[in-house]
Design a protein that fits this description.
This protein is of the alpha/beta class. It contains 21 helices and 25 strands. The strands form seven sheets. It has a five-stranded mixed β-sheet. A four-stranded mixed β-sheet has the order 2-1-10-9, sandwiched between helices. Strand 21 (about 475) and strand 22 (about 485) form a beta hairpin. The longest helix has 22 residues, at about 305-325.
Length: about 600
């Protein structure tokens, strides 16, 4: 392991200016227009950002002022973000999936006067709560497409009009000066948590926290054979409103990699094939879905192909089993794996674009079996761990030091320990300053000695790898007094190809139950293969054969658990869990409290 030779600037705004000045004509950002990917140079991006930033200053934006940004991941998000920093202001992201009430809460809580919105949908959402936003002065849409009748609103200013305003600003050098004068102690963002346990809280993060994160990631990823930098390509699809996506976006200014903005999650596989990313940043749900699809395709193939795949997996497990045990595979095992890779795994690897050197997973636990399965197929997933309050990662697996089932070792600058009750505590420059306007909530998680109480339960093994066993607040205590970690059970269940989501319930109950959401396409196919007649999906999931199918799945899951952990009853839901319907956070974690309330009748039954 060696340290990167790249200079780490005190602030990301200086890193940005360095890229612009040293590589003005290099195409770095790419968006899909029609059937073609169109590149944008550093200089073009800079001129765009400068215009927006000086336009904001002309409108009256002040240093230290909070500016809201409501959008899905796209080039304009990155431009508006850096433009806000160029005013010496603070970016406050709002998830595009937030409800009108949630959106109003965040805008009012941070007292934003200026709000960027992505498109007609987000503009209409903000206008629907306009009367509840007394401090808002200007709403700035990236696009008016689809709502020309709204363009005449007096408090709207288009992005292009804002840029023109900036071009006429008398002091054109102010933008560069502002970027250079940003101090490490300044706030670069207030990231509101997605509210799995109640009202969202705004985590105040400084430029120094961001710099510390980038410094450590650079040290951990830099090696003689696997250095990360300008030769890499990233396909960006994580929500930049989430800290994981935001770090990916900001780190690009330091590493200088090419960024392709995915069209949508639905078109992700197609975009991967076109772009051929060398790195993938994703939440575990992306890999879980890919795993389920691969397994389903294998199950639907001919017996000869299934036998070939089973042979290849057996060979792969033997080969990597030796490596994971710290031993060297034999010549025969190596030769067999190379054959399996060429005949079987190469096709799976190609689905991800055929160039991925490694993936970074965070935001939720990655089931160990899925990590090992993907590695055998040629896709190395480096699982890390962090929170909004820690400016993303504080631990990570690396290419040099990796252990599946763990979240890696602490980053170089991070101090980490396990409290007496098993909670993971962190001390680091990366830790947030406070919850915005919430001193009591801050004191609950930041102790007087500077340790941040993560709320996660974990252990550190003899080799220094950290493992999470559960969320402290998610632990289920049965009426018999047994402590149960639901994520352990849920991760086992999610390996089943028919399972989309699985939520364990049982606090203060006699036994554990589960809400089950099935993979609709797979269940419909099962119904056709088994001559099950139905008129609608809600009717299908009640069919005795589908109930029997899920019971077999539960029997398999229970066989891997202690008796007090076993699921005694289940309820199949006819609807998918989604961000829009409230069951999932934007990082695709289950909102347990919300689900417990929404599905109380089903759970009580």
């Amino acid at each position: 392991m060696i340290n990167s030779k790249r200079q780490v600037f005190p602030t990301i705004t200086q890193s940005f200016l360095n890229r612009v000045r040293s590589q003005p004509d290099r195409e770095t950002f790419f968006t899909k227009e029609g059937t073609q990917w169109k590149g944008v140079t550093w200089k073009q991006f800079y001129e765009n950002v400068k215009g927006i930033s000086l336009g904001l200053i002309e409108l009256g934006s002040l240093p230290g002022e909070n500016v809201c940004l409501i959008s899905n991941t796209r080039l304009e998000w990155a431009a508006a973000d850096m433009a806000i920093l160029g005013t010496r202001g603070v970016t406050v992201p709002v998830y595009a999936s937030n409800t009108p009430d949630e959106t109003a809460y965040i805008i009012n809580h941070c007292e934003a006067r200026f709000v960027f919105v992505e498109d007609a949908k987000q503009l209409e959402k903000v206008l629907s709560i306009r009367s509840k936003l007394p401090k808002v002065e200007k709403i700035i849409p990236f696009s008016f497409v689809g709502t020309p009748q709204l363009a005449s609103q007096k408090d709207l200013v288009s992005l292009s009009a804002l840029r023109e305003l900036g071009k006429r600003y008398p002091d054109q050098d102010k933008f560069d000066r502002n970027l250079m004068e940003v101090r490490p102690s300044d706030i670069f963002t207030i990231c509101y948590t997605s509210g799995t346990t109640g009202v969202p809280k705004g985590a105040v993060l400084t430029f120094d926290a961001l710099t510390s994160e980038i410094q450590d990631v650079d040290k951990m990823l830099a090696s003689e054979s696997e250095d990360v930098g300008e030769s890499d390509t990233v396909l960006s699809f994580l929500p930049i409103s989430h800290i994981f996506g935001k770090i990916e976006s900001m780190a690009g200014y330091h590493f200088g990699w090419k960024v392709y903005y995915a069209e949508s999650i639905e078109k992700l596989l197609g975009n991967m094939a076109e772009v051929g990313p060398t790195m993938l940043f994703a939440v575990p749900r992306i890999f879980e879905k890919a795993y389920s699809r691969i397994k389903a395709n294998i199950d639907d193939s001919s017996s000869s192909k299934r036998n070939m795949f089973d042979w290849a997996m057996k060979v792969g497990r033997a080969y990597f089993g030796k490596i994971w045990a710290g031993k060297k595979p034999s010549l025969l095992e190596t030769a067999q794996y190379q054959i399996a890779r060429k005949l079987v795994f190469k096709k799976i690897y190609a689905r991800f674009g055929g160039r991925v050197r490694f993936c970074v997973a965070g935001g939720a636990p990655l089931p160990r079996d899925i990590g090992e399965f993907m590695r055998i197929c040629g896709l190395t997933i480096l699982e890390g761990y962090g929170l909004t309050e820690t400016c993303a990662a504080v631990t990570v697996n690396t290419l040099a030091e990796m252990k599946y089932g763990s979240i890696g070792k602490p980053l170089p600058e991070v101090a980490l320990k396990i409290a007496e009750d098993g909670e993971i505590l962190v001390k680091s420059r990366k830790v947030f300053r406070e919850y915005y306007k919430s001193p009591e909530a801050t004191r609950e998680v930041l102790d007087p000695d500077g340790w941040f109480h993560t709320g996660d339960i974990g252990v550190i093994d003899e080799e220094g790898f950290v493992k999470i066993t559960d969320r402290k607040k998610d632990l289920i205590v049965t009426s018999g007094g047994k402590n149960v970690a639901p994520q352990k059970i849920e991760n086992i269940a999610k390996l089943q190809k028919y399972v989309s989501h699985f939520m364990v319930h049982g606090d203060q109950r006699n036994y554990l139950t589960a809400l089950v959401v099935l993979e609709k396409d797979e269940v419909v196919k099962f119904a056709k293969d088994n001559d099950i007649l139905f008129s609608e999906y809600g009717e299908l999931v009640k069919h005795p054969k589908i109930q029997g199918l899920v019971q077999k799945i539960l029997d398999d899951v229970n066989s891997k658990l202690a008796s007090f952990e076993s699921i005694k009853r289940f309820k199949i839901l006819p609807n998918e869990f989604s961000i829009e319907s409230g069951e999932l956070t934007p990082s695709l974690k289950i909102r347990r409290r919300y689900c417990n309330e929404k599905y109380k009748p089903e759970l009580d039954s």
